Structure formats: structure tokens, C-alpha cells
Amino acid sequence: MRPYPPVLYLSGLGLALVGHLIHPLSLPDAVGVRVLGAVPVAVAVLLGVAAERELVRAKTPVLPFRDASALVTTGPFRLTRNPIYLAFTLLVLGVALGTASWWPVITLPLVLVAMTWVIRGEERSLERLFGEEYRRYRHRVRRWL
């Protein structure tokens, strides 16, 4: 059983909070830095909503632990094979800027290592389900960007 991706990202943020409480590592505490955090958050929301819309339109599960019933290659899936995970990653970077803390940036690589393991499992499943069609898509579109 694969870990649930939102839990991995929330765990990374939880670890960042603990790190911040023990030993704060602050970014320059300027209004501009905090406001700048809204940019990746806004992009994350737009990307996540657009990706979910494409999955719903294709009548395939949004939840990652259910087998896909369609290979979605439209919308944000034209640019990245994992737009929802990219959205979560951008959200974490927005939180780092918005809270003016380095800790979310420090813990994010741990999350991304775990996510790579999750994604590889999903890729094996998609290849099993869609064969050559998925292999062509994987060759054409990058995992992240």
C-alpha cells in the first residue's frame, strides 16, 4: 500500500513546524517575501483545480490509490505527468515564503524522495493499464516539469 500523498506533504509541513519551534530559520521578514508567497499558492490552487477538472471530465478517479480508468493527457497533464503533486509542492513553497521560514524548504526534499517512490508505483500501474499509450505519454511529458 502506497502512502497517501497529501499526508506526505502535511507530514513534511509538520516536521517543518517542529524544526521551526526548536530552532527558527527565518527568511528575511519583509512584507514582500510574505506577499510573494501568495504567488505559488495561487498557481498551486489553479493547477490543482485544473488537473482535478480534467480527471473528472475523463471520468477517472482523482484519488491516487484507485486504478485509473482513463489516461488523461489534456489540460495541465500536457505539461507535467503529476500536476496535482506539483501543485502540492508549490503550495509548500508558498507556505515557506508566507511564513518567512526556511523549514518547509528544508523538509521538502524528504517529501519529494517519498513522492518519487509513490509516483514510480503509480507509473507501473499506469503502464500495466495503458501499455504503449502510457509509454509514449511518459516519453513525451516530464514527470514534474
Write the layout of secondary structure elements.
Layout: H1 5-22, H2 31-36, H3 38-57, H4 83-99, H5 103-140
Helix pairs in contact: 1-4, 1-5, 3-4, 4-5
Any idea what the radius of gyration is? Answer: 17 Å
Please tally the helical runs, counting DSSP H or I stretches of 4 or more residues.
Answer: 5
Strand content: under 5%
In total, the number of strands is 0
Shape: elongated
Q: Would you list the SSEs in sequence order as H and E?
A: HHHHH
The chain-level mean pLDDT equals 95
What is the terminal separation in angstroms?
27 Å
Number of domain modules: 1
Helix content: 55-70%
Question: Which segments are poorly predicted (pLDDT under 50) over 5 or more consecutive residues?
Answer: none
What characterizes the major β-sheet? none
Quickly give the structural class: mainly alpha
Question: Can you give keywords for this protein?
Answer:
mainly alpha; 5 helices; about 140 residues
How would you describe this structure to a colleague?
The chain has 145 residues and is an all-alpha fold. The chain has one domain (5-16, 30-140). Helices cover 68% and strands 0% of the residues. The protein has five helices and no strands. It has helices at residues 5-22, 31-36, 38-57, 83-99, 103-140. The protein is elongated and about 50 Å long. It starts with a helix and ends in a 5-residue tail after the last helix. The model has no long low-confidence stretch (mean pLDDT 95).
TL;DR?
This protein has five helices and no strands.
